[in-house]
Amino acid sequence: MGVIEMINPATGERLGELEETSPEAIERAMVHARKAFRRWGNLPLAERLDHINRLRRYIVDHADELAETVVRDTGKVHLEALMTEILLTVDFIKYYEKKAASILKPKKVSTPITLIGRRSWVEYRPMGVVAVISPWNYPFQLAMIPAISALVAGNAVLIKPSEVSPLTGLLIEKVFRKVGFPEDVVQVIHGGKEVGERLIQARPDKIFFTGSVATGKKVMAAAAEHLIPVDLELGGKDPMIVFADADLRRAANAAVWGAFTNAGQTCMAVERLYVESSVYETFVRMVKERTEALRLTEEGADVGSMTFPRQLDIVEAHLADAKEKGAKILCGGRRTGSDGLHFEPTVLTDVDHSMRIMREETFGPVLPIMPFDTEEEAIRLANDTPYGLNSSIWTKNRKKARRVAGRIEAGNVCINDVMINMANPGLPYGGVKWSGIGRYHGPEGLLSFCHRVSVISHPGRKKREINWYPYSERQTDAIRYLIRLLYGKGWNLSLKELLNLAVQFLRRK
Ligand code: NAD
To answer: Can you tell me which residues form the catalytic site (predicted)?
Structure first.
């Protein structure tokens, strides 16, 4: 059991220490969570939603205060914390308050004629204890939204926030305490990698993991030992494709925001920008001008500090590799300020796919731009990555936009917009390829925390069924006739055959 040092990454100020949760305490938390689940999962949905509603109102009433804690923990800009951590979270809560009843109610399924007399439906039941393991880049929202989804569905939750943003972990704990959530329904487990591993060894009934590809693979392997279902929300290397007929001003503003918001530490940040050759020079100039106009360290800045020292090392390693292979840095490229983890927003040209900066997740304020000549080339470049999280296509030609969007290998696509699909709580969110497994948000975001139980019901007043013992030649014939009748050419059975079939059905009585 270690101690986590809490440091404001923007200033280097020490904020205190936090003890990691011990292995014994994790075991205890699991036992308590299982007990709490039995009560919570049996509450009527309306009662669970009352608690969730109080949670929303608390977050709204303390929005600035909560955002400020996240700012001190991560170095992000206050407006960004308010927008992406608080606004997004309460919007999701509201969505589930409105939609959960219809999403979770049993769904009728049609019953085929071969099963005549029965009724079929699907019920959604909570899974038990859900472990939510979350990252540091949006530490409030990325822990709260999956946790709230799991809670609405009727599960108890153990949240393991990132050790890189421990203050937000404490904040989440406080929020649930203040709202008076029933005891042990939500517990927060503090600590790093080993604590995460221990949590999985404690055998939750489901794991919702958000983080890097490397850790996601380990989580999945550990979960496989106990056959625990996992959802993985992993990294990205998202492409933005700008065609010559796009609104270039809108696209340039979007590229700069998409690359540098949250200091580029967004899983679906614009990490690769492809621009049609005929407007390449103009567009690069527009992006450079806008990037140079961004304000950094001062109050009310546009770009905050980075959060994790090791991430800054990765950014610098990618830049060094790109420069060595011939890339040009148009602006930025250096650490800035004496304290903290600030890095200048950086634009690069003369890049190609042999460079790490075009292939690996950089997760920092860096925007490499590359020209393309044809639609086919743009699609090939965009898909030339092991990742598939988000993507954006920019053109005024709606047909072309839909055509290209349909060929991008990603879980999410924006047309003439950037990153925003995550902000619609009704849209399922998740990646393809290395970017993840599973979906959350939208109806899927509740159902993925449920067992789907299929139920088939018979009135129960017949002694036997056509397919039950004892078997007979006539029964075999009847099945044969049924196959021909229902799935063959149609009404080509003789009267005798039809009669046999009818008799077999009637004999069920
Ligand atoms: P990370 O993988 O280092 O850590 C994520 C969480 O896993 C942390 O809480 C960490 O303590 C825990 N952990 C580490 N090793 C573990 C193990 N062996 N077993 C169990 N838990 C373990 O990721 P990070 O650096 O915190 O976050 C950045 C990454 O997250 C980026 O790759 C980013 O793209 C990705 N991300 C993805 C999404 C998405 O929705 N797809 C959203 C945000 C961030």
So the answer is: 233, 267
Cβ-Cβ contacts under 8 Å for 206 (sequence gap 6 or more): 127, 128, 129, 130, 131, 150, 155, 228, 229, 230, 231, 449
21 vs 337, higher pLDDT: 21
Give me ligand 1 centre to Cα 212, in Å. Answer: 5
CA separation for the pair 50, 245 (Å, rounded): 50
For the whole model, what pTM was predicted? 0.96
What does the pLDDT look like over 409-458, one tens digit per residue?
Answer: 999 999 999 999 999 999 999 999 999 999 999 999 999 999 999 999 99
For 463-475, what is each residue's pLDDT tens digit? Answer: 888 889 999 998 8
Q: Domain map of the chain by residue range?
A: 25-234+442-453, 238-424, 463-506
pLDDT given for residue 505 in this prediction: 75
Residue 32 near residue 187 (C-beta atoms within 8 A): yes
Is the CB–ligand 1 distance for residue 271 below 6 Å? Answer: no
pLDDT tens figures, 348-399:
999 999 999 999 999 999 999 999 999 999 999 999 999 999 999 999 999 9
Closest ligand 1 atom number to CA of residue 164 = 26
Cα gap 264→257, rounded to integer Å: 9
Band (pLDDT 50/70/90 cuts) for residue 485 is confident
438 lines ligand 1 (CB under 6 A): no
395: amino acid identity, one letter: T
How far does Cα 461 stand from its chain's mean position? 48
Q: Kindly provide the residue ranges of all beta strands, DSSP E only, lying in 110-257, ordered along the sequence.
A: 119-126, 129-133, 156-160, 186-188, 206-210, 230-233, 238-242
Residue 187 Cβ contacting ligand 1 at under 6 Å: no
pLDDT tens readout for residues 50-107: 999 999 999 999 999 999 999 999 999 999 999 999 999 999 999 999 999 999 999 9
Distance from CA of residue 209 to its chain's centroid?
9
Q: How many CB atoms lie within 10 A of CB 403?
A: 14
Choosing from 20, 80, 233, 344, which is the catalytic residue? Answer: 233
**Catalytic residue (choose from 20, 267, 360, 414):** 267
Size of the chain in residues: 509
Ligand 1 midpoint to CA 83 (Å) = 22
C-beta of 345 in contact with ligand 1 (< 6 A): no
Residue 267 is among the residues annotated as catalytic for this protein:
yes
How far, in Å, from the CA of 399 to the mean position of ligand 1?
37
The CATH number that domain 238-424 falls under is 3.40.309.10
Pick the CATH number of 25-234+442-453 from 1.10.3720.10, 3.30.530.20, 1.10.10.10, 3.40.605.10: 3.40.605.10
